[in-house]
Amino acid sequence: MISGLIGAATVLVLVTVVLPLWIVAHYATKWRAARALQPEDESRFAELHALLERLEQRMDSVERILERDGDALGGRERHGS
């Protein structure tokens, strides 16, 4: 009879204390892993955005140069074509 009560008390403690704590800890860990961007991630994105802006400016410059060279050639055949 006493061993049955000890078993029942153990199950009761596991179900009412251990299991809820484990569930809370599990989902708290998942929440931390899925949080928003870290400050260093945000700064890295800002750096990448600035790099993208510079690359777009360079591409615009290259396109303008190519258009100007194409206009300067007029109707002449281009070398290497």
Describe the structure in brief.
The model has no long low-confidence stretch (mean pLDDT 86). The protein is mostly helical and 81 residues long.
Spell out the key features of this protein.
81 residues, mainly alpha, 2 domains
Reported for the largest beta sheet, the result is: none
- List the domain count as a whole number: 2
Q: Note the gap between the termini.
A: 98 Å
What's the mean pLDDT score?
86
Radius of gyration: 34 Å
Assess the beta-strand content as a share of residues: under 5%
Helix content: over 70%
Number of helices, where a helix is a run of at least 4 consecutive DSSP H or I residues:
2
Shape: rod-shaped
Quantity of strands, as a count: 0
| Low-confidence blocks of residues | none
Q: Which structural category do the helix and sheet elements fall into?
A: mainly alpha
Give the topology string: H per helix, E per strand.
HH
Helices and strands in order, then pairings?
Elements: H1 2-33, H2 39-73
